[in-house]
Amino acid sequence: MKCHVPGPNVKVLARTVHALARFGDELYLESLPDCILLRTLNASESAYAMVKLNKNFFSHFNYNYYSIENDGLKCKISMKSALNAFKSPAHMDKQVENLEIKLDPHSSKLIFQLKCKHGIVKTHYVSILDCKAMQAIYTKDLVPNRITSSQRLFSEAIGNFQCSDDQVTLEVTSESLIIKNFGDTPTDLSRIIRSQVTIKPFEFSSYTIGTDTNITFTMKEFRALLGFAEGLNLPVQLHFEITGKPAVFIVHNGTTIEAHFVLATSKPDIATQYTSQQTTNSERKRKDDSNDNNISAKKAHLEDLSNQFQEDSNLFNYIPNNISQNVIENINNLEKADSMDTNRDNIPASPTSKMKIASVFKRCFESTFDPRIIHGVVLAENSDSD
Amino acid sequence: MDDGTSQYYFTACMDSGKTLYNILKSIQFQECAVFCAMQEGLKLTVEEGKCVQASAYIPSDNFTEYHVRDDVDVLFKINISVLTECLNIFGANEDSSLKMYYRCEGSPLLLVLQPQSMINVMTDCEIATQIADSILELRDEDVPEVAKLVLKASAFMGLLADLERSCDTIEINLSPEHPNVSIITYGMQDRSCIDVPKSSDMVQSFSCRQAIRLKYQLYHLRLTMKALAISSKVVLRSSSNGLLLIQLKLEKEDQRQMFTEFFILPLLDD
After folding, report:
1. Of residues A269 and B104, which shows the higher confidence score?
2. Domain B10-45+58-130, second-level architecture
3. B145-264 CATH pick, 3.20.20.60, 3.30.390.30, 3.30.2350.10, 3.70.10.10
4. Cα–Cα distance for residue pair B65/B14, rounded to 1 Å
5. How far apart are CA A77 and CA A364, in angstroms?
6. How distant is the Cα of B245 from the closest Cα of chain A, in angstroms?
7. Which Pfam family would be a valid example here (chain A) (predicted)?
């Protein structure tokens, strides 16, 4: 894959990378015949972002430059490396004239070459960590609730909230939308400042609520995507269903760029991050049960690939690089699969080393510890008789 | 007055202490500096672990009055952070005139500062001095210069600022062939490379006799950044033994000039 990004779009790409960096630590890049997809997933797998850069975003686009095969390329790089190539998005359009991205299937490096002012050429050789692509399964089209807002409206509302607020709740009815930082039950006393912003439907460019509901999602990613939309001066579309189903934020300009930000939602009155994820996972599972067979069939072999994702990647499917590799892995896993199938429900006991250490020094933790009761050989006598 | 000053080893007067403060701040990465007053001007030198030597040189024409006794060496060690603190005693927004006195070996350096906007306010500072340590003599006349590069200071600073902070070493390749200057940094897994051809606007002059590959600690090069920020022009000279000399020129509003120079020792190839 080889493509050229013209100067003004380099700034857009830099803003995209910076927004994605607020989501996850790894960046997945996939080149398709007519577009490039950038994806990321956060560590707790509760937020996913996908940015599609269409062919006309680039001044030159050749997705199979190095190979004759009609197969797109996929790679995973560290987000840090990507950020290193796009350091200061605000000034990038002034310095950079052109960016060339090269991905050779036989090389282990992804190349970003920035042609800057003063004839300076900066080349970043970024290591490819993996050749996998990752894709989330979510619905954005057949949902009852759709809101389109100008990029300013949400950011201004969010500006009233504290930096320490980690979650935000949207309470929607057909009459109004309420953004607040607390749930319904007043159990959480640690939250001192409670904020609530009510926005009337006429403030939005479009407002369709089929089902009254309230959804809670993380603030950090919400701020990141709003910042992205604001930087690009594009409106935000929010598509969502009910509590527990993911909320999809769409930012697009219709021609060159389209970004989807998917945030897992939870019930609003859950105090900690941990429990909220637990809920999301179980909610997700419920959702997946209703999904069509095609997806669950896909999942079946994914479970062989990595047990790690069995529990929590129901929303997110990993697509292997190519089938041949997959087959080899499947063969390798054949013998394992039998034993694994039977043991699948058994969760191995966690290591107990911590307990052992605690018991070695157990006496120290007793409230009535008296050093005199330790009888034994004195290895080093007190040096001073006093 | 002349009779009064002649008993001092060194006296100097300056209308504005601001530029002096800025230039001393830019080499202040160590506590102590060697203060040396010569007939031509004043020079303060700091060293970082015998790897980097930075000097600020203020030619005597920057002073309204400048006297050094020619029969003695005016050389002592002084705490440079205390010195800069004293120069900035009226705060960053207040420029002050400055007088400096140094009576004899072992006596403190006396500073008299008077703010320009306030009359009848005066500060008298006494900074203790110590016997100077020996400074490395890094300039070797026998070693030929291989490459010389004159760059715009702001553009060079932009390049240094853009380098990845996490990497330790920087490799500079200079060559008579295109690309004439190439700066390579190695990150955790990644490699970044900046090519600057001699035709670039930021390169004011370039001469290089043979291709040379130099390796330095990035941290050492970063020490020049404060000086780059206040300078207009930077000269990079490289000797065949790998020693890098970075000379920076600071131009004041009154057409007078001050200089900083950094000697940076190379990393050995492993």
Report:
1. B104
2. Box (3.70)
3. 3.70.10.10
4. 7
5. 48
6. 23
7. Rad9
